[in-house]
């Protein structure tokens, strides 16, 4: 269990910390070299990106560490602590599954640009869907959306 946790938890943490750390260092050092009328906004986005990367790494640790601690405890405990490890396992499994979906949630909460991009994608999907309808289907759909029917509204 210790080796599995080392490989599947500590190795990804090391990679995340190293790679995101390099990105953060590059962004942090380049903030002094920003010039031009949009330098202040780019510096703001650099700081926002650094914060987001730190939160993503922290979320990964918080969501996955209990799972791996629970695995080690479960493998090494006696029957007396069985109930405690079962509750710990339940909580860690909830965090485990949350960890699989938390990044988009964090991006949505922390980044206005992300929310705008998602909104744009969703609106594009609606436009694409409406373009694929025939003219009579569009007319019928528009009339239903307005609460009208094509007959008897004269």
TrEMBL record:
What Pfam families does its record include? 7tm_1 (PF00001)
Which residues span the membrane?
Answer: 6-28, 49-67, 87-110
| Keywords from the named record | G-protein coupled receptor, Membrane, Receptor, Transducer, Transmembrane, Transmembrane helix
Q: Which domain of life is it from?
A: Eukaryota
| Signal peptide coordinates | none
Which GO molecular-function terms appear in the entry?
A: G protein-coupled receptor activity
Q: Where in the cell is it found?
A: Membrane
What InterPro entries is this protein classified in? GPCR_Rhodpsn (IPR000276), GPCR_Rhodpsn_7TM (IPR017452)
Q: Name one cellular component (GO) term.
A: plasma membrane
Q: How does it sit in the membrane?
A: Multi-pass membrane protein
Q: Which residue numbers delimit the G-protein coupled receptors family 1 profile domain?
A: 1-107
Q: Which PANTHER family match?
A: G-PROTEIN COUPLED RECEPTOR, MOTILIN RECEPTOR
Protein name as it appears in the record? G-protein coupled receptors family 1 profile domain-containing protein
The protein's organism comes out as Alligator mississippiensis (American alligator)
């Amino acid at each position: 269990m210790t080796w599995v946790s080392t490989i599947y938890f500590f190795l990804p943490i090391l990679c995340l910390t190293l790679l995101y750390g390099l990105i953060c260092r590059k962004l942090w050092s380049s903030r002094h070299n920003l010039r031009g009328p949009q330098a202040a906004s780019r510096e703001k986005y650099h700081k926002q990106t650094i914060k987001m990367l730190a939160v993503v790494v922290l979320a990964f640790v918080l969501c996955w560490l209990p799972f791996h601690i629970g695995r080690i405890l479960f493998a090494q405990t006696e029957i007396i602590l069985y109930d405690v490890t079962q509750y710990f396992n339940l909580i860690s499994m909830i965090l485990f599954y949350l960890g699989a979906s938390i990044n988009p949630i964090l991006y949505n909460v922390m980044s206005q640009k992300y929310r705008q991009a998602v909104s744009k994608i969703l609106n594009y999907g609606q436009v694409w869907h409406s373009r694929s309808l025939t003219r009579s289907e569009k007319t019928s759909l528009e009339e239903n959306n307005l609460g009208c029917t094509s007959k008897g509204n004269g």
